[in-house]
Predict the 3D structure of the following.
Amino acid sequence: MALILVIFACILSSLTIFSISKGKFTGLFQKHIMNIFFAIFIYLLFIRIKIPRRYFLVYYLITIILLLIPLFTSPYPKRWIKMPVFSFQPSEIAKVPFLISLPVFLQNKENVKFKDSIYLFFLCFLPFLLVLIEPDMGSSIFYIFMFFMIILVRKTDINVRLFYIIPPLSLIFSFNYITFIFFLIILTVFIIYVKIRRLFAFCFILISIFIGLATPFVWSKVLKDYQRERIKVFLNPSLDPKGAGWQISQGLIAIGSGRITGKGFMKGMQKGLAFLPAAHTDFIFASFAEEFGFIGSSILFAIYFLFFWNLIFILKYTDSFSLIFSVMVIFSYLYSFSLNLGGEMGIIPLTGIPLPFFSYGGTSMVTNFLLLSLFRNFQRSFFYKR
Amino acid sequence: MEEKIPRVLKYLIYVVFGVMMIRLFYLEIIKGEEYNRKSMRNIVKEIEIPALRGRIFDRYGKVLASWRPGYEVFIEDTILKEDISIEEVVKLEQSEKKIYIIGRPYRLYPYKGIYSHAIGWTGKASREEILKGFYSLGDRTGKSGLEKIYEGFLRGRDGISFRMVDAKGNIMGQEVRPAIAPLKGMDIITSLDVDMGIYIDSLFLPYKKGACIVINIKNGEILSIYSKPVFDINILSGKVNEKEWFNIKNDSLNPLLNRAVSGVYPPGSIFKIFTALTGFELGIIDTNEIIECKGKYKLGNRIFKDWKKEGHGKVNFRKAVEVSCDVYFYEIARRIGLKRFLDKLNVSKIEEEKCFDVFGEKRGYFPDIDFYYKRYGPYGFSEGNVLNLAIGQGEILLTPIQIAVFIGQIANNGKMVKPHIVKKIGADNVEIKDTLILPFKKKYIEIVKNALYYVCNGEKGTGRLAAIEGWKVAGKTGTTQNPFGEDHSLFCGFAPFEDPVFLVMVLVENAGMGGEVAAPLAGKIFNYLYKKWQKNLLP
């Protein structure tokens, strides 16, 4: 079922790519079709292979090595590994060994203790750092996101959760003192409600206040003007009016101008006239929405919704490893899905994450199919295990 | 131990899809129309299609101004090249993508310099005109002459083509919506006679500077308005050749000046007509009175000379006009006196602008008593000054058209329709009814008019050389003293005398006596008119 839905998405994506390449069967469209077929081949290849569930270090080292190679071989931005026949983006494909390595690490731990959480944090922080210096903001956050999802989903002591969640939240809310005061009140109420040890509660609130006071100070006194600007643009590329800001507004125009029924297949104008520079990757949904409108976009959303629904539906407890891996795969899809569409529709800053099963790009296509394949593989693994 | 499937997964999916759907609904349904408009504005570039300018014809339908095709190349809303040929356009189109090309009709004047001053010329609209929004960059607009006066009729309305552009501003070629077609400007039919212009131009060949006007006195139509030197107005219509334009602007002969309406000259002896009329009006001229002319006139201790050293002998009024006797008019002027003369001068309206649609017309200059006070002080001037004024010398300055209208009014019993060039705009006849009235009594005008007949037909008449076979010509010569060189030669006459229709005004700068240069030229023009008239081509 999930595979059929994904193939539906691929067909819609192929139509969009076909329209972007102005009705030519060669070039972009041909490559896209080849990518899809290759990815399906990979899916079929991995669906019955027995994946070893030990050797944590092997998986993790593969991840790290994959992420290290482009930093030494690729020209700026260091995102690619060039091979004689094809090249690929390691930050995408590295998700696979990374997402296997974490369940291997966690499978025998019933709950995440503080010591484990420290290990886990650094396990996630290292790939985060390696991708960040590529630089690829959107892809790097994936690894930190996974860390938070693990401590959210796995049984974890409330103190440990708060320990990790309070500092970043304080940082986010401290940019405006009113929101920070609100945050502080809610935090205090929450801490009283969950009844943790007073010492911890006191410490958490103190940390929060410290960050809340330090951030504005560092922002206005320590950082220089150009550094502030750089951070601003880094966090929100739409502030750069000639670069991403222009792209985002053109993307919104493309989506909005689709209206209810869309302009019709092959009749979209924004991309053909180069108003959307990344029409086939970052802004593929905008290209799609322009031509197929609200109805078409709703159908696409429905396909994705059914896909997620189906994944959750077939999610069963077989063993800890499978469950952790499967849940993280779903999170991984949800992450790409919401960051891409949120960026294109102007809800969150643009990150350049491809839309799973839709954007042009072999690495992301293969990675997503591979993750789906492994998902099915582990979900049914108990059949042949027993 | 069996683990539960985390619930948070489901909730997160609900939230994500809920937010996405709301946002999608907002973008595509609520804001859809707005974004659609933005999308259209994004991709549509409005490109002007210049309208064809109305043509200008002469009275026989000969084309004075039409157009020739040309191309203008724009790049990002600035003109890259103008007035280039189709071959150059093809070459450019291959090399550069961002450019767009508009076909622009440029003015073509088949008769080059003939009547160039009256027709005028076109040029690029100025920055101010563009800022006001009436014109867009590169538009041609009338800068002078009929082209300027009738700009509103000639211009037409530019069309717009809606072309698709990509993000970089490259024109993609397709039309997004059907273009708005340009509307051609209205044609103008004038009363000018271009063949006569060519003939006059040939007559003026020996002379450097001058002017010639031919008017139909009956209805005020200008048949000819010629100013020498002429220049080819075509050089201003397309891409202006800066060197040629510089030469024209800095030519010492000043070809840009329309001498017929903008050049001011002392009218010379022609102005004796005014002195005579004033004298009659004040009752101080008796047509039978005889005044002896010895070539000199003494007033106080100053001696005023006649143009003929030995004098004209005994002359009555008719004879005095015929031979243009200065002494006779000195005597009349003395009797009138400076004050009364100046008063009459300043109510005569002779020095005002006369024409309906001739560009650049200047007022003449008549002095008044304040002028003398300012110039010479309260005791610096005397009754003697009126003697100079009476024979059209000194401070009086008039343009040829003002002199022509003055004589025309006399020929036409004191009134005349405003001189004009336009006959028809589009399909509508233009009827000018404004009449210029000379503030003198009809009977005195009649007397003066009769005297003018003898100027051309009397045995000693100064304008005898203007007389032709077939028509009785009447008129008056004038010679204007010029401190910078030879005298200017003037003649203004009309024919046929019994029922005057045509008026010819000739002025030749630095040529000599009016009767010797201007009068024979006028005679040839009368002859030309007579022949056409006989063939029923005129009026």
Summary: The longest helix of chain A spans residues 284-314. Residues 230 and 339 of chain A are 21 Å apart (CA to CA). The radius of gyration of chain A is 22 Å.
